[in-house]
Amino acid sequence: MSSEGRTTRQQVAVRAALDSSAEFVSAQQLHAELRAAGERVGLATVYRALGKMSEGGEVDVLVRPDGETLYRSCSSGHHHHLICRGCGTTVEVAAPSVERWARDVAEREGFSDVSHTVELVGLCRACSQAVDMAP
């Protein structure tokens, strides 16, 4: 995980904290959780560890509309996200038709080594029902 190829105790702690969370979390949230658990780790170290994991494809990265970056341990394989803008619930979705479309467009335009991110944002069932029931 580190640039020298050596993994530090702090990086292992960041990874473990991220793995224990089912939802997307910010670096600040992870840092607070680690400190509350008695880990001696700086916020800059948390950011560096998350950056390395992101570069390595080990974490999903989500940028909220307000610009805040959130992280979650990544499931295997390429996927996209369906995100509730009400409560933040996130669902990983496979989208083979999107993959075919992206590949076809890239080939047609003469591009190679193309990557993409698709995030669908809406209201989950519970938030939709809450909105429908509001006076």
Descriptive account of the structure:
The protein is of the alpha+beta class. It folds into two domains: 1-74, Orthogonal Bundle (Arc Repressor Mutant, subunit A), CATH 1.10.10.10; 76-135, Dna Ligase, domain 1 (2-Layer Sandwich), CATH 3.30.1490.190. The chain has helices spanning 9-19, 27-36, 43-55, 96-109, 125-133; strands at residues 25-26, 59-63, 69-73, 80-84, 90-93, 119-122. The strands form two sheets. A three-stranded antiparallel beta sheet has the order 1-3-2. Strand 4 (80-84) and strand 5 (90-93) form a beta hairpin. Helix 1 packs across helix 2 and helix 2 (27-36) packs across helix 3 (43-55).
In summary, what is this structure?
This protein has 135 residues and is α+β, with helices and mostly antiparallel strands. Helices cover 42% and strands 19% of the residues.
Jot down its keywords.
single chain; 135 residues; alpha+beta; Arc Repressor Mutant, subunit A; Dna Ligase, domain 1; 2 domains; three-stranded mixed beta sheet; 5 helices; flat
